Amino acid sequence: MSHCFSGLLQTTLLVGLLGACAADPSTAPYPLTTVPTLDIQRYLGRWYEIAKYPNWFQRKCVKNTSADYSLNPDRSVRVTNQCKSADGHLETAQGEARQIGEALSPKLEVRFAPAWLSVLPFVWGNYWVIDLDADYSLVAVSEPQRDYLWIMSRTPKAKATAYQNLIQRLEAKGFDSARLELTLQD
Questions:
Q1: Residue 26 has pLDDT above 70, yes or no
Q2: What does residue 142 show for φ and ψ, rounded to 5 degrees?
């Protein structure tokens, strides 16, 4: 989901290479399941990061992390990630996402590399919607190996009960909730 964004091309290429070398998802304790369907039209708009597994490409992000999704003319999704760094600067990255498979697929790929590199498969990373409230207000996104995890909400703070219920569902899917880092919001 959101990335903090210096050296973006290098980061994207490295993530792609790491993803290409990553363990086969079939070696996980059990395959990661997604939500049955994803209505992209309902998913569009702003999402606020509530928590995430810490990752190296967001190391400069200290608060106010969000992602905005809008539809491109070719039906791909424009992704605008932003966050505040420790020195108060707003970090921004533009990317693109595309659904894999059928029109309501919850499996997407996302890239933050320049468009001219989009023909290279390793610049695309998995973006799987693995949990989503019926009203599209709270979501969890990951990838087959469960190395990355983002919890996002339509509001800067998630409702406590909804968040705790989501955590229980994620633990049942094999995620370690102790690894989650809460995202600060003003």
A1: no
A2: -150, -155
What's the total number of domains in the chain? 1
* Range 119-152 burial, b when 16+ CB lie within 10 A, else e: eeebbbbbbbbbbbbeebebbbbbbbebebbbbb
* Residue 165 C-alpha from the chain's centroid: 19
pLDDT in the model for residue 23: 40
Residue 166 identity (one-letter amino acid) = L
Report if residue 1 sits inside a domain: no
Q: Which domain holds residue 150?
A: 8-17+29-182
Measured in residues, the chain has a length of 186
Query: Rounded to an integer, what is the distance from CA 179 to the centroid of its chain?
Result: 16
* Total Cβ atoms within 10 A of residue 116: 7
Q: Answer with the residue of higher pLDDT: 19 or 155.
A: 155
Please report the pLDDT score of residue 121 as a whole number.
86
Residue 137 to residue 162: CA distance in whole angstroms: 10
C-beta separation of 93 from 3 below 8 A: yes
**Amino acid 28: pLDDT:** 55
Domain of 95, CATH number, reads: 2.40.128.20
